[in-house]
Protein: Lipoprotein-releasing ABC transporter permease subunit
Amino acid sequence: MRFWQRQLPLYIGTRYSFSRQRTRFIGVVSMVSLLGMAIGVASLIVVLSVMNGFGGELRDRILTLVSHAEIRAETGDLEAWSELTDTLQENPSIVGFAPFIETKVLLASQRQVAGAQLVAIDPRLESAVSAVADNMLAGKFSALEEQRYGIVLGSLLARGLGLNLGDSVEVTVPRLTLTPLGAYPRTKRFEVVGVFSVGAQLDSNRAYIALGAGQKLLSLGDAVHGLRLQFADLYAAPRLSRDIAEELGPGFQVRDWEQTQRSLFSAVRMEKTMITVLLMSVVAVAAFNIVSTLTMAITEKRGDIAVLRTMGISARSVMAIFMAQGLVLASVGVAVGALVGVLLALNISEAVALLEQLFGFKVFDPQVYFISNLPADLQWRDVLLIVGSALLLSLLATLVPAWRATRIAPAEVLRYG
Structure:
């Protein structure tokens, strides 16, 4: 008997949720609450999946050129980097390393001037830490070995400067050359030997030259600014970087890709958080619509409540009945929204492609954007978080009206009808 007593509030609450005896207005309000919850949950799942897709696409494209970790000297340039590579070769977690020099420069063609990030590398070692050689639009990355004063430009940077293969570009570095006539900016003319494209912002501000040319241009001798590292596991980079820093000891600074690109990925995470908060307000509005539904339902069921109380149902059970009614409505809406959201997130690229084909437009024009389709990465952790948050908001929304149901005096209701 105790089992049925415990299940009775859930049974009655479920019956009230789908009862056909309620007024049409209460039915409409219930349906609006259910649809609002479904739309809010589905929207959150789809939007967060797209945000995850964009974040992953951005990470993969940037890490095409950015290494998993960097080693720099804590003060000054890295002098004895050749000896350091002997130590790194003994570490089985490191699959590649390459020296680099980087600085901000001005690039000047005959028609335009643009700022850029100039990176001097060893073309033979760079392929172990970067995929730029696999993303060439014109020329060869290995031409930097043959042409000492050759330069490889990002596609958007080359287009902005109006440069093609074989053209010359003047590189000005932030160093001064002292002459009897005064101090002059240090400049050098380079020949364009290649153009690359990775489909990211780096195409508009990155240029590569040979390591020897960079050392001479910046008067570094045999020194470099640091070493780039590549690990077998990208996501193990933070842990492995800390291990390498402890192994090398003081005098060296080891930073992983999460640190070198912190500002960019922090901005992406912040954007995702803000969109989540904004869309969660849709779920919150739908959840608190349950308050209206339950308030009207309680007013309609005053007679039922009075009868149940006179039959011995406790105030706690009455409260559980209407909490169950609200949660059943919310659960149906959350379930429908989760199902629709997951299906849309898994097929968003195909759905967008179908719409583009039907209506003859492009959501992402490849001539304007770095991507041509809508990426999506459905993470079940996000789905569980959304479903759990929606149900929690719904539970909180049922508390006040359910508590008010316990304040109804049975004698007054039965006496005055």
In short: The beta strands are 69-73, 94-108, 113-121, 136-139, 150-154, 168-179, 182-196, 206-210, 226-231, 252-256. The first helix runs from residue 2 to 17. The chain has 15 helices and ten strands.
